[in-house]
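Sample intake sheet
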Amino acid sequence: MPRLKLTDAFVRNAKPIDGKVTEYADERENGLALRISPAGAKSWTFRYRTKAGQQKRMSLGRTNDVSLSDARSRVVKERAFVSAGGDPVAIAAKAKDAAIEEFKRETVQQVGEWYFQECKVGRHRQNAKPKRVSTLRTELLYFNKHILTKLGSRKLADVSRSMVQAFVNDLADNTSKSAARHCKVILHGIYSFAERQELVDKNPCQHVTVASHEPRERVLSDDELRTIWQTMTPPIEVEGLTVSAGVAYAIQLAMVTLQRRSEVTGMKLSEIDRDQRIWVLPSARTKNKRDHVVPLSVLAIELIDKALNVRSVDSDFVFPSPRDANKPIDGQALTHAFVRMRNVLELGDIRPHDLRRTGATNLTSERLGFPRFTVSKVLNHTSDTGNSAAVTSVYDRNGYLSEKRRALDSWAIRINEIISDRENSNNLVRLTI
């Protein structure tokens, strides 16, 4: 290897010797050399010997990108690192392997994790929107608990339809039919995503059968409603039952307003208009992605005020998380409270969503006599068009506020009758429908 004091002019004019790879060592900085390929491409290289006696060569970049001065400065640093026992080539190789591993997408786990990242921004399928945080949380729970356990380490292309079928059958038989359905849907989404990314040629989840969903029909009795209300009236004094006052009031408010648990726990003061007695749920927080106006009965306003009085932090949320005032309590907290309550009181299989079904059933029954169409508006369902043409619902943006208000005010009266053993409250007036 020719050795000389390199200059900028020499670097610009240097040629390979005899058309072969040539290196010109720098006399000034030990280990630095100008490397020229047979085609004339020029780059900097650093040669060194490790503490173990191994000779190694490290590329410092092309001469068009790195000047002679910068190359010499880099060599001084790398030489000091080698003198201290370091091995820059080994470290660079390790970093490269880590980068390759990070973007290696072969197994169910690797592609699944990529899929969920894309779900957050709406790139998991064509014309998609970002998945809700609550939906992602639920799907990740099933993914981590069941799918990764059985299939996570398998290469995506090695999973067959029979494997997926056996997997969901095992879940249905030994865990639950619900877990089997969720996992099949999640796997189908992952494979559909992988097909679009050209990672696999087919989706093994197609034609996999899973137990059909059995609609829940549980309607709570008056006695059960009364027990839930009285139990969840703070301060809670049932032996063996621990539920925070905020969660308890959220359960009562869910019963009165008939809205979904996460919509109730996520209620903000900025969503409430006390003068008009309405709660405006923005489209970002509703299941059907539409704004939803919920009339607030006198009883609902009272519950909101009670919830505000027991808050330990100042927040825009009516039910703030005790750990972070900028977040609400999780809707799952209501489910956990129901589980604890039903276990302590031996109430059987009751769930927060049963409150919506029970309220809707009461509203359409002979007790109150509201048409199903009105109830669908209270529940914020979009499938019920009142026997009219489906296209009508696209243009009809009437909020049916007065109809919803009569329904929810009547339901509040009915709740008050139930919890007070059918004696009307002094601050509620029976409405004429």
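Comment: Residues 385-397, 423-433 have pLDDT under 50 and may be disordered. The chain has three domains: 3-101, 108-196, 222-419.
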